[in-house]
Amino acid sequence: MSKGSTRERLTQAAFSLFDEHGYEQTTIDDVAERAGVGRTTFFRHYRSKEEVIFPDHDRLLATIRDRLAGSTHATALVAVSDAVRIVLMHYLDEGDLALRRYALTSKVPALRDREIVSVARYQRLFREFIANWMGDTGPSAPLRAELMAANVVAAHNHVLRRWLRGESTDPVAEIDDAMREVLALFPAPTAAADARADGTTIIVLRSATEIDALLPSLRRLLQGDAHS
To answer: Are 142 and 130 in contact (CB under 8 A)?
Structure first.
């Protein structure tokens, strides 16, 4: 029997027992017996009863980290949106299992607490990536990165919960719309970050002087900056 099929049998056995007898009343031995395997086999796949409930967050986080690492400074925000979609699609692909997990975690405080810890791991990953993207070392930079990361995670959780509650018929379109809203709140990268990228900087000024009269002065300024 393959590792994947054994893991799936353990998961299905666990959720069935949780439905029948309750989470607290179900033991690891009960799950192993229902799945037709031994206790040792259970621990080859899961470290605890709680771990049966949740997705493989380690694998998901690694996938997100790889997606973010493959971006450039110019495509960083696209990578953030893609990373959020990756997580959402995982839950959508789980289908009924995700719905049963939501019902269970809604009733068991210990599982809700563990879910909060898992969410914090995603937020920390986004915060570190966003802080690097901003290139800001000012005293308020960590707070800005934290707030931005929190908005990213909140957008995902909002759409996911709507789908779990049966309120969303197109969660993929909703997550795209939500991420556009979130990314519109992001400040432009700092000048230090912009300096790392090639290109031309254009400054727009308002003046009562005609443009033809201003051009020679602007040209001298630009030439002087280029030779400084």
So the answer is: no
The answer to whether residue 4 scores a pLDDT higher than 70 is no
Q: What is the DSSP string of 172-212?
A: HHHHHHHHHHHHTTSPPPPHHHHTTS-S--------SS-HH
* Contact predicate 35/13, CB 8 Å: yes
Q: For residue 150, what are the contacts with CB-CB under 8 A and spacing of at least 6?
A: 123
Q: pTM of the prediction?
A: 0.77
pLDDT digits (tens, 9 = 90+) for 134-179: 888 889 999 999 999 999 999 999 999 999 999 999 999 999 999 9
197-204's contacts with Cβ under 8 Å and 24+ in sequence apart are 197/73, 197/74
Q: Which amino acid is residue 146, in one-letter code? A: E
Return d(Cα 146, Cα 153) in angstroms, integer. 11
Q: Per-residue pLDDT tens for 122-131?
A: 999 999 999 9
Return left, alpha or beta for 205; rule: phi > 0 is left, psi -120 to 50 is alpha, else beta: beta
